[in-house]
Design goal:
heterodimer; A: alpha/beta; OB fold (Dihydrolipoamide Acetyltransferase, E2P); 2 domains; five-stranded mixed barrel; 2 helices; 6 strands; B: mainly beta; Lipocalin; elongated; YceI family protein (chain B); Lipid/polyisoprenoid-bd_YceI (chain B); TTHA0802/YceI-like_sf (chain B); Nucleic acid binding protein (chain A)
Chain lengths: 126, 181
């Protein structure tokens, strides 16, 4: 009897180790919507941080930003001309220029060629 | 990178005030593949900026390394933190010229693009065979090329050497629309 319990214990322990090992080696991809936002600020202020070379704190972080839609193209929208947002699901037909939006997404950095901040994996939260 | 930036800006904004026809792809596509017997790694970046000046044939490409999306989170972490060190070198850029480019030609033309590619702080001269398709005012540039990991001083730990190919295949596709600055 004791041997049966021991075997069961070993099997459960090995199974648990395998699951932990797999999740350590292959963690799930990030779900930005489920992450807690590290920063919340206006699109204009976010841009100013980067243009003053003080934006590293936002890179690869889940952030919430707010601004007026100034441009809508095939794959992205722009807030206040300065922040380019790549939305995950929302059809662009539901968004109008001049709308005020609050979005949550991942800040991927600053493109100094066009002087824009880029955010991907974004979701509208207002 | 610092030396390349003024040149990129010059192409983008035509600082000498000449009349030029510029096209831009704000969300160009670049993907790379590494095939080994141990593991296949693929990453995609759909946020690549590309500007083409059709009067001069000059082209500038800029991509944020952080924007590459991988199948597995750990691959992305290794790529950004250990290999390309995106906190130190956040962007890769290419500045070059489309040789013998005829912007008036409707339909397809295949041309060599020659220029300088900078990644991980290393600049290399590249020649890339590129298919250019003109459809009204839009230019679509696409192609594939191969590059060596060691050319860019990317250090792979011996333990993972079998997981990452020595030669990486790169695909690109930029749909450049007329750009009014």
């Amino acid at each position: 009897m004791a041997r049966r319990y021991l075997l069961m214990f070993i099997a459960i322990a090995v199974g648990a180790l395998a699951i932990v090992g797999y999740r350590t080696l292959y963690p799930e991809s990030r779900n930005i919507l489920k992450e807690e936002a590290v920063h919340q600020l206006s699109a204009q202020l976010l841009f100013e941080h980067f243009s003053e070379e003080n934006g590293d704190q936002f890179i690869d972080q889940a952030i919430i930003t707010t601004g007026k839609v100034t441009e809508i193209d095939q794959q992205s929208i722009f807030l206040d001309h300065k922040v380019q947002i790549n939305l995950l699901d929302t059809p662009h037909s539901e968004i109008q220029v001049e709308d005020y939006l609050t979005i949550k997404g991942r800040c991927i950095g600053y493109d100094d060629l066009l002087e824009i901040v880029k955010i991907d994996q974004a979701t509208i939260t207002n | 990178m610092g030396k390349l930036l003024p040149f990129l800006v010059l192409i983008a904004f035509n600082g000498f005030g000449q009349v030029a026809t510029k096209s831009i792809a704000r969300q160009g596509h670049v993907s790379f593949f590494s095939y080994t017997s141990v593991e296949h790694i693929k990453a995609e970046n759909n946020q690549v900026l590309s500007i083409v000046d059709s009067t001069t044939g000059e082209i500038a490409v800029s991509m944020l390394m952080n924007a590459f999306v991988f199948e597995k989170a750990l691959m992305r972490e290794h790529f950004n933190e250990s290999y390309v060190e995106s906190d130190i070198y956040p962007k890769a850029t290419f500045v070059g010229t489309i040789m013998d480019f005829d912007p008036t030609l409707e339909g397809e033309q295949t041309r060599m693009v020659e220029g300088r590619f900078n990644m991980h702080g290393v600049t290399k001269e590249l020649q890339i065979k590129t298919k250019i398709t003109r459809n009204n005012e839009t230019f679509i540039l696409s192609g594939t090329f191969e590059t060596l990991v060691r050319d860019y001083e990317i250090k792979i730990p011996p333990l993972l050497a079998g997981n990452i190919a020595k030669t990486i295949s790169v695909d690109f596709n930029f749909e450049c629309m007329p750009y009014e600055n």
